[in-house]
Amino acid sequence: MRVREAILPDAEKIHELISAYSGDGTLLPRNFPEICENVRDFVVLEHRGRIIGCGALHLYGQHLAEIRSITVDPLHQRSGGGKRLVDALLEEAEKHKVTCICLFTRKPEFFSHLGFTIAQREDLPDKIHKDCCVCPRYHCCDEVAMIKGELPKFAILPEPASWLVKLQV
Ligand SMILES: CC(C)(COP(=O)(O)OP(=O)(O)OC[C@H]1O[C@@H](n2cnc3c(N)ncnc32)[C@H](O)[C@@H]1OP(=O)(O)O)[C@@H](O)C(=O)NCCC(=O)NCCS
Question: Are 129 and 159 in contact (CB under 8 A)?
Answer without folding.
Answer: yes
